[in-house]
Amino acid sequence: MAFSMNGKNVLITGGGKGIGKSITETFLKEGANVVFSGRNVQTGESTEKEFSTYPGKIKFIKSDVSLEEDTKKLFKETEKFLGSIDIVVLNAGYFPQKRISDMSSENWDEVININLKGVFLNTKEAMNYLKTGGSIVITSSITGNRVGNPGLSHYSAAKAGVNGFMRTAALELSGLGININAVEPGNIMTPGMENVLGEKYIKDQESIIPLGKLGKPEDIAYAVIFLASDEAKYITGQSIIVDGGQILPESALDLK
Ligand code: NAP
User: Is 129 a catalytic residue?
Assistant: First the structure.
């Protein structure tokens, strides 16, 4: 079957809720074994329990993507649990809203450290574990890469940085036989979206999306599965936009 993940060993950062939870479940449904990380133990353990009925192995490991020591420990413990690692999904992300005028350098650093430095640290560590044929897939964003979003300048800078990092990493990893790609979600209904950005933001976004609704976490998970599959091994340094057509209209008139 195309895109089968049968027996593949997968590490997913931020795999316990939102888009990451759906990525975790989709890999399990396709026959993979999964270790996923996050900082919130309650959320992680609850997702681990919820998905324990799938035949594949599953384990939550508490780990902060922005801390080098946590990252090293995460990969070491994952290999110990799964025996090897075939696929790494760098999904953890954080998008608190703050206008530039109100933003402290601490606000800036926190968002850059989680969304951009986290991708660097985990890619570097993945290079010590993935073998030829291994894949890395990053959850990037249309924000920063295709569109701006007031209140998310730090996040925009981080996600644009992620795509730039990914293109150069693709060249450096090609010699190891590892491909690295990204998915750029548009507006996807997740706890992060509901709790951080809120109801008004969601309604406003729906009105400017040509397909008329926010995406579902599974919409991103399927694109991730494709890029991690054996069928996508000749693709590297690329990103797939999954946004219901959000970036297409040249003006609001095009939506009528
Ligand atoms: P979410 O519901 O807030 O989930 C974020 C996930 O990342 C959680 O599992 C969280 O786990 C984890 N995380 C955050 N900071 C972390 C850290 N320092 N170390 C380890 N894990 C961390 O967000 P989401 O909407 O699913 O977003 C998932 C990814 O998609 C992010 O990269 C986000 O930027 C991207 N994205 C989302 C949208 C959207 O519309 N939702 C659009 C474009 C891109 P803990 O809370 O346990 O730490």
Answer: no
From first to last of its 256 residues, the chain has per-residue pLDDT tens of 578 999 999 999 999 999 999 999 999 999 999 999 999 999 999 999 999 999 999 999 999 999 999 999 999 999 999 999 999 999 999 999 999 999 999 999 999 999 999 999 999 999 999 999 999 999 999 999 999 999 999 999 999 999 999 999 999 999 999 999 999 999 999 887 777 778 888 888 889 999 999 999 999 999 999 999 999 999 999 999 999 999 999 998 898 7
Single out the catalytic residue among 54, 155, 201, 234: 155
| Ligand 1, atom 33, residue with closest C-alpha | 93
Report CA-CA distances (Å) from 247 to 162, 184, 211: 19, 11, 11
* 110 in Cβ contact with 64 (< 8 Å): no
> Is pTM beyond 0.90 here?
yes
Residue 228 in contact with ligand 1 by CB distance below 6 A: no
What's the gap in Å between 43 CA and the centre of ligand 1?
13
Asked if 33 contacts 10 with a C-beta cutoff of 8 angstroms, the reply is: yes
